[in-house]
Amino acid sequence: MSMAGNLRKVTSLGRVGGLRRVARLARRRPRVDLSHPARSPLGSSVVNCVSYRDGARVPGGGDLVDTVERVRKHGDGFVWLGLHEPTDQEFAGIAELFELHPLAVEDAIEAHQRPKLERYDETLFAVFKTVCYVEHEELTATSEVVNTGEIMVFAGEDFVITVRHGMHGSLGPLREELEADPQQLAKGPAAVLHAIADHVVDDYLNVTDAVQADIDQVETDVFSPDGARTDPGRIYQLKRELLELKRAVVPLTRPIEELSTRPIRVVSSEIQAYFRDVSDHLLRAKEQIAAFDELLNSILQAHLAQVTVAQNEDMRKITAWAAIVAVPTMVCGVYGMNFDHMPELRWTFGYPMVLGVISVACLVLYRGFRRNGWL
Questions:
Q1: Coil, strand, or helix at residue 113?
Q2: Strands 159-165 and 78-84: what pairing?
Q3: Residue 182 pLDDT more than 60?
Q4: Separation CA 367–CA 364 (nearest Å)
Q5: Where does the pLDDT of residue 141 fall: very low under 50, low under 70, confident under 90, or very high at 90 and above?
């Protein structure tokens, strides 16, 4: 069916009125994060709705149905609709207008999905996990290091719909960068899909660099003279946060590989070359995370070994002092048995002699333990 036929079908079914009702419902909710100049205040979930032709923004717009109608009437260009955490009611009209698959719509609304790439007829549905580094003055056993969100992308022949979940990962700056490069933007929805994937993967690399600084600090603390006193909870916390980062990065490998190698109608061979570059960056992030995991395991084992060594040293010191104290304890115990006939009990110098023997024996033991490194 032609694009004009699709538009007539949408209009004849009354979807236009339904979509306008959705827009009115959206305006009743508090607006979010619309301060960026690349955004238009179209409602709380609709962040922006812009059409592009030959890589340039088409003036006007504001109403989604009118914007789609203009694009399909001319037969070229595409619409980029940006949403932030839409509700079922807000997304219902949009799903009907662009004939989106119900399963993909459900994933886009519910969020908490693994990174993936799915094809529904002529529409691609991609899920990206966004990550950001949480700044902190000092790493503790409860510090949040990595915060995650999601970006879902519907890409068709004449539209791109981005659905963002989370308080980070804004696409406003990315939209401006693309608009500053009309030649790339003229390649259509696939160029937007590549730009989003590249943006997400670049964030992975930035976060891994920041996490490496935390790991270096923990490593320095563990191998310091007081390394045995380092809180192991910090190491476990880093491992937990690294696992969160791993869940975002590793599953994305297969979708990016498909976009860069397999023939897909929406993605031209020219854009696939750009996805291969994204794949290289993703592989680098994946290798860094694997290396961090191994390094943290080694740091944790080294810390446990240091604790064991410190405990052994403490036990040797306790044992050495116990041996030294055992000498006077033994002598005093013998002379405290209250027998009538014991050596030197009536001798004037008996008491000083016993003290001298005890002192000499303790001194000999002390020097011996010192020489052997026990004290």
A1: coil
A2: parallel
A3: yes
A4: 5
A5: confident
The dihedral through the CA atoms of 191, 196, 200, 203 has a sign that is positive
> What is the 8-class DSSP label of residue 227?
G
CA angle 55, 169, 236 (to 5 degrees): 150
Q: List C-alpha distances in Å: 356 to 135, 298, 350, 362.
A: 65, 52, 10, 10
- Token pair 């970006």 is found at 151
Q: What is the predicted pLDDT for the residue at 288?
A: 93
Which residues, 6 or more positions from 96, have their beta carbon under 8 angstroms from its beta carbon?
10, 13, 15, 18, 19
From CA 155, how far away is CA 162, in angstroms rounded? 9
The number of C-alpha atoms within 13 Å of 157 and in the hemisphere containing its C-beta is 12
The distance in angstroms from the start CA to the end CA of the chain is 89
CA 110/CA 88 separation, integer angstroms: 9
Candidates 14, 162, 22; CA nearest to 100 is: 162
pLDDT band at 116 (very low <50, low <70, confident <90, very high): very high
Q: Which amino acid is at 125?
A: F
Q: Measured between alpha carbons, how far is residue 307 from residues 28, 88, 190, 259, 321 in Å?
A: 59, 54, 55, 49, 21
pLDDT band at 89 (very low <50, low <70, confident <90, very high): confident
Q: Any idea how long the chain is?
A: 375
Instruction: Confirm if 64 and 86 have CB atoms less than 8 A apart.
Output: no
